[in-house]
Amino acid sequence: MALNIIDHPLVLHKLSIMRDKETSTMKFRELLQEISMLMGYEITRDIPLTYEDIETPLMPMKAPKIAGKKVVVVPILRAGLGMVDGLMKLIPAARVGHIGLYRDEVTCQPVFYYYKMPANKERLVILTDPMLATGGSACDAISRLKKDGFKYIKLMCLVASPQGVKAVSEQHPDVDIYLASLDEGLNERNYILPGLGDAGDRIFGTK
Ligand code: PRP
Ligand code: URA
Q1: Cα–Cα distance measured from residue 191 to residue 49, given in angstroms and rounded to the nearest whole number
Q2: Cα–Cα distance measured from residue 202 to residue 33, given in angstroms and rounded to the nearest whole number
Q3: In this predicted structure, what is the pLDDT of residue 67?
Q4: Residue 137's Cα: distance from chain center in Å?
Q5: What is the pLDDT of residue 200?
Q6: Residue 164 CB–ligand 1 contact under 6 Å
Q7: Residue whose CA is closest, atom 1 of ligand 2?
Q8: pLDDT tops 90 at residue 69
Q9: Which domain holds residue 27?
Q10: Contact predicate 195/186, CB 8 Å
Q11: 192 lines ligand 2 (CB under 6 A)
C-alpha cells in the first residue's frame, strides 16, 4: 500500500477554509470540488500513455495519448458525491458507480444500502469519500468492489485519521490511498480531529 499525501499549498489553503466552522455550505461544496480536481491530477499521474501518429500543421509526430485502463469514479454516498464533479472535469469519459453506505450513529459500523457499478471490471476504480475515520466504510466498500471482480482500486479521501489509514492498509494492502491531510486522531464518537465535522451534512446542508 502506498500512502500519498497531496499537501500542495493550494490544496492545504482550500482545506483550511473548509475546516472553518463558519464556512458556508455553498463555499464548502465549491472548495471540495476544486480540491478534488487538484488531487485528481496526482491520482492519475501513473496512467500509461501510448504514442499515436498525428500530423501537426508543420510535421508528423508520435503524439502521447492515454492508453491505460478506463476509469470509473465511485463515490461512497453521500459525502463522496462531493468529489465526483472535480474528477469528472479531468476525466470526462469516466463512468460513475455508486456505493451506498452510512455509519450507524451508535455503533459507528457501516450500514450498506446501495451498489451500482459498470460491467467492465478491468476499469481503474477511484473510490471517493472525503472522510476516512475508523476506516470501516472504506474497507467495506473496497471489499464489495473486490467481491464483484474489480481489481484496480485507488482510495481518494480529503482527511484521514491514522486509525483509518491503518485499517485500510491492513485489510486492503493493494489499495493506494490519496489524502490531503493525515489528521491527529478520533474523538470518543469516532469523528476525525481536528477534521471538519460531518462532511455529508456540510456538503448538503442537512444540519
Ligand atoms: C461518513 C463519511 C464516511 C464515513 C467515515 O459518512 O463520509 O463514509 O462516515 O467513517 P468511518 O471511516 O468511521 O466508516 P456518513 O456515515 O456520515 O454518511 P453520509 O455521507 O451519508 O452523511
Ligand atoms: N464522518 C464524517 O463526516 N466526519 C468525521 O469526522 C467522521 C466520520
Answers
A1: 40
A2: 13
A3: 85
A4: 13
A5: 97
A6: yes
A7: 198
A8: no
A9: 3-204
A10: no
A11: yes
Taking the CA of 129 as reference, the closest ligand is: 1
Q: Which atom of ligand 1 is nearest to the CA of 206?
A: 22
201 an active-site residue? Answer: yes
Which amino acid, one-letter code, is at 1? Answer: M
Residue 31 dihedral angles phi and psi, to the nearest 5°: -70, -35
Question: What is the DSSP code string of 31-77?
Answer: HHHHHHHHHHHHHTTT--EEEEEEE-SS-EEEEEEE-S--EEEEEEE
The candidate with the shortest Cα–Cα distance to 181, out of 198, 170, 195, 167, is 195
Return the CATH number at 152.
3.40.50.2020
Would you call 78 a catalytic residue per the annotation? no
- Judge whether 19 counts as a catalytic residue: no
The C-alpha atoms of residue 199 and residue 19 are separated, in whole angstroms, by 10
Our answer on whether the CB atom of 199 is closer than 6 Å to any ligand 2 atom is yes
95 in catalytic set: no
The total number of structural domains that make up the chain? 1
- Strand, coil or helix: 149: coil
Give residue 207's pLDDT band: very low, low, confident or very high (50, 70, 90).
confident
CB of 98 closer than 6 A to ligand 1?
no
Residue pLDDT, tens place only, 35-60: 999 999 999 999 889 999 999 999 99
98-132 residue pLDDT tens: 999 999 989 999 999 999 999 999 999 999 999 99
Q: Is the pLDDT of residue 26 over 80?
A: yes
